[in-house]
Design the sequence.
């Protein structure tokens, strides 16, 4: 073999060896890159799973802080949809680019829906907080009990209840005076010929105007009502009234004066006066008289 041919063979061998080495390095680098890409894909998939799970947990948490059956039902539906997509994501392989892309788009949609519900619930909570504060003030002003706003399902129901409480009348400055036959104050109850009850109906611009009938029930120390000749309906029963009077009520403060002619023996002791109007007891007071 001549020298030129030998050199050619050596050159070809070196080139082949270099090619093999280069190919090996390239394959190794490609393998390394593929591994890194797979790890990134797995990491991305895991992040998506975590976000889906956070959305499902948020729906569950929101349901515990809202008292509206319609919204709770919607939140439950969205939570189930989120759980379903999460299960789909867990089953798919990180290398399935088409499914991962689809579920990523679904995730973006779920994120927008969740934000919309967060804003809506935040708005409802602010409304309920305002109504609760208003209702508390009304309770103190009109001495009436109402159930907690959180128990209401809609803003309309809450507003209706608030108006009903505000419209209730109040009787203030209640006084009961025994009178003798000359119409003067009598110190001894057993000698009185009539009873005079005075009170003031407080101003109330919320209450309806028109003819209103006020019933006064005077209960003797023995626990029986002094009979004025009739009864009226109150809480699914009929009560005996001692006095009654009908007036044209205009919403302004109104002074009332009623009389009852003594038709039975009145003993010394504590008498209880209760005043009713529009199916509500609007005031009461006790008085003690000596013999």
Sequence:
């Amino acid at each position: 073999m001549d020298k030129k041919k030998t050199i050619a063979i050596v050159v070809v061998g070196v080139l082949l060896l270099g090619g093999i080495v280069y190919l090996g390095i390239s394959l190794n680098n490609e393998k390394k890159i593929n591994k890194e890409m797979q790890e990134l894909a797995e990491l991305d998939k895991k992040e998506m799973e975590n976000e889906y799970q956070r959305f499902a947990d948020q729906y569950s948490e929101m349901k515990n802080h809202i008292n509206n059956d319609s919204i709770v039902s919607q939140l439950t539906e969205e939570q189930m949809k989120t759980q379903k997509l999460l299960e789909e994501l867990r089953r798919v392989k990180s290398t399935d680019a088409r499914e991962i892309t689809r579920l990523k788009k679904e995730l973006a949609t779920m994120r927008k829906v969740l934000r919309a519900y967060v804003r809506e619930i935040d708005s409802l909570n602010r409304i309920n907080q305002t109504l609760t504060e208003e209702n508390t003030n009304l309770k103190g002003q009109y001495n009436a009990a109402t159930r907690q706003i959180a128990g209401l399902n809609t803003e309309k129901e809450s507003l209706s209840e608030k108006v009903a409480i505000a419209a209730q009348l109040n009787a203030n400055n209640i006084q009961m005076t025994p009178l003798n036959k000359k119409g003067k104050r009598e110190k001894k109850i057993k000698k009185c010929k009539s009873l005079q009850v005075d009170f003031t109906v407080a101003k109330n611009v919320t209450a309806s105007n028109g003819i209103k009938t006020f019933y006064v029930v005077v209960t003797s120390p023995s626990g029986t009502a002094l009979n004025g000749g009739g009864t009226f309906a109150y809480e699914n029963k009929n009560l005996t009234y001692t006095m009654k009077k009908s007036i044209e009520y205009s919403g302004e403060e109104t002074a009332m004066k009623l009389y009852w002619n003594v038709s039975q023996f009145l003993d010394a002791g504590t008498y209880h006066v209760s005043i009713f109007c529009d199916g509500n007891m609007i005031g009461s007071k006790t008085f003690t008289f000596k013999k």
Summary: The two ends are 155 Å apart (CA to CA). The mean pLDDT is 80. The first strand starts at residue 171 and ends at 179.
